[in-house]
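G., the chain you wanted modeled:
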Amino acid sequence: MKYHVYILTNFKKTVLYIGFTGSLQERIQQHKAGQVEGFTKKYKTNTLIYYEEFDDVSQAKAREKAMKKWKRAWKEELINKANPNWDEVVIV
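Predicted structure as tokens:
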């Protein structure tokens, strides 16, 4: 099984959300449908702009936990390296 840490943003690209899942495609669909209560629903963060894949669940959880503590500038730098225009990422 693969695990993912992902970053979502809203339409205006002003809000960032970091999450973790064992089923990226399904989780993104839940965000898009507004089925995830809390932060992502409130701020309409449903555009996938970055993700990382892991084979080990503990590594993925540790990465998510670490990234959530990062300053926004560090998160933006990570996103900009992989996706400079912050375009919606297609899951492969």
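The CA atoms of residues 50 and 82 lie 7 Å apart.

Shout if anything looks off.
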